[in-house]
């Protein structure tokens, strides 16, 4: 009698279990990463279906963009980092409010055994923050990790500082995290303002390459940018 009742209940419990696991970061199903497309895009085998997954909340520099002009040397470094870390490994995924983008890609936080890989990319300086509402669940933690990586001059932040120094950019000359005489923290690479929109960005923001040369204004600190009447870009979140 008892055994028969358990038989009837088991399938219900089992489907409930899978339903709960499908959206959890921890304890969810682990999927094989069959290919890494670039630093922030991977392909996973989801129960026999190949799913292209875009890691959300972040942007790595472009390496495989169809418009070659958008690809930057650092993009290769970020892509290799993700390839080495994820290809052939099993990952779990966590979805946010919007599950797919207009290209049909799954938008996800990707977990390896010990960490959320979106966070790893930020803390290693291989990605920068890119916030697209409504997917904002981890934005505060992400912003803190980016600030820390930027202050340490990790990964792409050191690369950007070198690039800016080669350009003879005065705003970039102070060392990472060094306080200027006004006491404000100056970051390598400074900040890029757009005189057309009155917004300012991190140097690696996806919007920076499209700013007209004549509209580019460089700032050493956020305070300088704000004092000049510029507001922070909501995507790269300069701080
Ligand atoms: Zn921006």
What does this protein look like?
It is a single chain. With 239 residues, this protein is an alpha+beta fold. The chain has 2 domains: 23-152, OB fold (Dihydrolipoamide Acetyltransferase, E2P); 169-232, no CATH class. The chain contains 6 helices and 11 strands. The longest helix is centred in the N-terminal third of the chain and has 21 residues, at 2-22. Bound molecules: zinc ion. Zinc ion is lined by residues 201, 205, 207, 233, 235-236.
Descriptive key words:
single chain, alpha+beta, 6 helices, four-stranded mixed sheet, OB fold (Dihydrolipoamide Acetyltransferase, E2P), 31% helix, five-stranded mixed β-barrel, binds zinc ion, 239 residues, elongated, 2 domains
Shape-level CATH architecture of the largest domain: Beta Barrel
| The level-1 CATH class of the largest domain | Mainly Beta
- Assess the beta-strand content as a share of residues: 15-25%
Task: Write the CATH fold name of the largest domain.
Answer: OB fold (Dihydrolipoamide Acetyltransferase, E2P)
Rounded mean pLDDT score: 81
Query: How many angstroms separate the termini?
Result: 65 Å
Strand pairing plus helix content: what structural class? alpha+beta
Strands, count: 11
Biggest sheet strand line-up? 1-2-3-6-5
Instruction: Name the helix and strand elements from N-terminus to C-terminus, one letter apiece.
Output: HEEEEHEEHEHHEEEHE
Taking Cα atoms only, what radius of gyration do you get, to the nearest Å? 21 Å
Number of helical runs?
A: 6
Helix content: 25-40%
């Amino acid at each position: 009698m008892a055994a028969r009742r358990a038989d009837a209940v088991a399938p219900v419990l089992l489907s409930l279990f899978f339903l709960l696991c499908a959206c959890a970061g921890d304890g969810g199903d682990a999927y094989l990463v069959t290919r890494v497309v670039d630093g922030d895009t991977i392909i996973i085998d989801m129960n026999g279906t190949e799913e292209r997954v875009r890691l959300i909340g972040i942007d790595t520099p472009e390496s495989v963009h169809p418009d070659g002009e958008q690809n930057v040397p650092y993009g290769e470094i970020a892509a290799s980092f993700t390839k080495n870390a994820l290809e052939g490994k099993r990952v779990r995924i966590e979805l946010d409010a919007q599950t797919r983008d207009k290209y049909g890609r799954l938008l996800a936080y990707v977990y390896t055994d010990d960490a959320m890989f979106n966070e790893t990319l930020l803390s290693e300086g291989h990605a920068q923050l890119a916030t697209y509402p409504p997917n904002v669940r981890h934005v505060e933690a992400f912003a803190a990790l980016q600030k820390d990586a930027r202050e340490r001059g990790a990964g792409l932040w050191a690369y950007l500082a070198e690039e800016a120094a080669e350009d003879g950019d005065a705003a970039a000359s102070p060392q990472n995290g060094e306080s200027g005489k006004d006491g404000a923290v100056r970051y390598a690479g400074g900040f890029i303002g757009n005189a057309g929109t009155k917004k300012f960005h991190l140097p690696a923001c996806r919007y920076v390459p499209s700013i007209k040369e004549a509209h580019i204004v460089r700032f050493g600190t956020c305070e300088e940018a704000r004092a000049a009447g510029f507001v922070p870009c909501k995507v790269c979140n300069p701080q």
